Amino acid sequence: MKITVNIDCTPAEARAFMGLPDFEPMQKRAMEELEKRMLDSVERYSPEALLKMWMQPATLNADWLQDILRQGRK
């Protein structure tokens, strides 16, 4: 004998029916925090920020070289 039962319900209704905990509020807060962190990190990787980060050592080296050359002239 084969019996088939089709139940038409949402995942939330199925979890409630089975007695499983509702993690939706916690998941929503976690996703909001993750989104906030990602948006804050995007600023660090903007083209301007990357260019400044990469060019800073070059300008420091140029300043250092100019200081060395100035000291050699004295």
Characterise this structure.
By secondary structure, this protein is mainly α. The chain is built from three helices and no strands. The relative contact order is 0.05.
Give a brief description:
The protein is an all-alpha fold. 76% of the residues lie in helices and 0% in strands.
List the helices and strands and how they pair.
Blueprint: H1 11-18, H2 24-44, H3 47-73
Main attributes?
single chain; 74 residues; mainly alpha
Strand content: under 5%
- What count of helical segments does DSSP give? 3
Low-confidence stretches: none
Helix/strand order: HHH
User: Taking Cα atoms only, what radius of gyration do you get, to the nearest Å?
Assistant: 30 Å
Strand runs, count: 0
Largest sheet: none
The secondary structure category is: mainly alpha
Helix fraction bin: over 70%
